[in-house]
Specification:
The structure holds two protein chains of two kinds. Chain A has helices spanning about 5-10, 15-25, 25-40, 50-65. By secondary structure, chain A is mostly helical. Chain A has one domain. The longest helix of chain A has 15 residues, at about 50-65. Chain A is elongated, with a radius of gyration of 15 Å. By secondary structure, chain B is an alpha/beta fold. Chain B has two domains: about 45-305, 3-Layer(aba) Sandwich (Rossmann fold); about 335-405, no CATH class. Chain B contains eleven helices and nine strands. In chain B, the strands form two sheets. A seven-stranded mixed sheet of chain B has the order 3-2-1-4-5-7-6, sandwiched between helices. In chain B, strands 8-9 form a two-stranded antiparallel ribbon. Classes of the chains: A mainly alpha, B alpha/beta. At the A-B interface, helix 2, helix 3 and helix 4 of A face helix 6 and helix 9 of B.
């Protein structure tokens, strides 16, 4: 249970991921989203693997860690 | 003789050992009792309580107060519906009250006292008594074990503002002629989030786990409420759309509302990749032109009355309440079915009037002061289009759903036990006969 003030809340890892995925890497995110949009009636595992790899690489770079 | 017993015991032993050795197929739950249908357990009540406690104590309750917007808007609409019921209550029970979104709006002209019942203690005591206009009583108890604190069939009015969607099963607590007024999330709630997470999980991980609750459909409401003993009901549907900057703010607000996932057997975490993917999909698939994302909250409003077979006087008041609410909800409905709905209300009203004229010596139940209905007939309210018709029963009333005392003499007072079943997701209501 955390009762951190809102100023400190801005730097939680989840917040950083949020910013990274929607602001910093928005171009790659958009490309990935468009790919899903094009295939969502027949989506399967790794249908948009390349697009996500680019998105993910950007995230890793911004977050300065890998997962 | 002995040999036969021995052989039987040996077979039994063998069978037992076989059963014990088979770890693949084992009985995971107690066999169902055919005489009492138990509710299917979908939600983890304990997890829900913890989530609500955490949400209400985050940043001293401030976080929770900032996300009151959905519940406050819905409580406001519910209040309009309560005002349609022209009755003054002594006590109203607010079931799953939260910090009292609805109770705060009650005025002394409607009720003397409000009892708030909530499973999360921190949520229940979030706001001080000074914010309420009427006397407040707070009970910290689980909604599902309502009867431990509230006597059965004792309440004259129960309201519930957006809390029933995490409840597995509810006991009967209303008194005859009691009113239930509720709002709960419908099945289309958060469909954007649900589909985005599903697509992301499917594409990234190759499988799906439930992250958004399977909320009720308006079509299920009649069954659920029938189980709880409700008879006459009005259902209508509204949507609240909220725009958020991104999916992350939406998820944070949901957490602060205490609305995190509490489905039994849920996956306890979502992988970073899946979350990031879902956020990208949400934006592309559902996003607004200005870059924000919409979240839909579909709200099902219910007004129902309960009638016991022994209590006929309520038919009249119940029917009037019902028609008034029906007309009102049709008028205030923001859906495109408004005129249809109004028309149906009028049809129900006129059919009911003509039914009364035909079978009740010309006096309409809606205008006369007399309550009892005599004679061997049944009222049938039928169809998926909400029309009511009255049919004379050719045989004496013997159907179990009608009053128990009705099948003897022609002059016995009978009670109309309507079991309406609510229809279509579009706010159209219809009533089906309880006759089997």
């Amino acid at each position: 249970m955390s009762s951190v003030p809102s100023a400190a809340a801005a730097i939680t890892p989840l917040r950083r991921l949020a910013v990274a995925s929607t602001v910093t890497c928005s171009a790659q995110a958009s490309a990935y989203g468009q790919c899903i949009l094009a295939t969502y009636t027949d989506v399967r595992k790794d249908a948009c693997k390349e697009e996500f790899a680019r998105f993910s690489a950007c995230l890793h770079q911004v977050m300065k860690r890998k997962w | 003789m002995n040999q036969a017993i021995l052989a039987r015991n040996a077979r039994k032993l063998l069978r037992n050992s076989l059963v014990n050795n088979r770890s693949l197929a084992s009985i995971s739950s107690a066999p169902p009792n055919p005489n009492s249908v138990g509710p299917f357990q979908v939600f983890d009540r304990n997890a829900k309580r913890l989530q609500k406690d955490r949400a209400a104590s985050r940043a001293g309750g401030e976080r929770s107060r900032t996300v009151d917007y959905v519940r406050d808007a819905v409580a406001d609409t519910m209040m309009e519906r309560l005002l349609d019921i022209k009755r003054k209550f002594n006590v109203i029970l607010d079931l799953g009250s939260g910090p009292g979104h609805f109770s705060k709006m009650l005025e002394p002209s409607i009720t003397k006292k409000v009892v708030m019942l909530e499973s999360s203690e921190k949520t229940l005591h979030r706001d001080p008594d000074s914010e309420f206009d009427v006397e407040v009583d707070r009970i910290h108890a689980d909604e599902e074990n309502l009867l431990e604190t509230i006597p059965r069939n004792s309440q004259e009015a129960i309201v519930s503002c957006l809390s029933l969607h995490w409840v597995n099963d509810l006991p009967e607590a209303l008194q005859p002629d009691g009113v239930f007024l509720g709002a709960l999330f419908g099945g289309d709630t958060l469909f954007e989030l649900r589909t985005s997470l599903q697509l992301a999980e499917l594409e990234r991980e190759g499988g799906i786990s439930p992250h958004v609750s399977p909320m009720t459909d308006s079509r299920d409401m009649s069954n659920l409420l029938g189980r709880a003993g409700f008879t006459l009901l009005t259902v209508d549907i509204d949507e609240v759309k909220v725009n958020y900057p991104t999916m992350w703010e939406l998820m944070e607000d949901l957490r602060d509302m205490g609305e995190s996932n509490a489905i039994i057997g849920r996956r306890n975490y979502i992988h970073r990749n899946t979350l990031a993917a879902a956020s990208a999909i949400y934006k592309e698939l559902h996003g607004n032109e200005d870059g924000s994302i919409p979240a839909t909250f579909q709200i099902i409003y219910l007004v129902c009355n309960i009638f016991l077979a022994s209590d006929c006087g309520c038919v009249k008041t119940g029917m009037i309440d019902w028609l008034e609410t029906c007309t009102h909800s049709a008028k205030s409905s923001r859906t495109r079915h408004r005129s249809d709905q109004l028309e149906r209300c009028a049809v129900v009203q006129s059919e009911f009037d003509s039914f009364c004229n035909t079978y009740y010596g010309g006096t309409s139940l809606l205008s006369s002061g007399s309550m009892t209905i005599a004679g061997p007939f049944s009222l049938e309210v039928i169809g998926s289009r909400g029309a009511a018709i009255a049919i004379p029963a050719s045989s004496p009333l013997s159907t179990p759903s009608l009053s128990s005392s009705s099948n003897s003499a022609a002059s016995t007072t009978i009670c109309l036990t309507l079991t309406p079943s609510v229809v279509a997701a579009s706010g159209v209501f219809a009533v089906e006969p309880a006759i089997s």
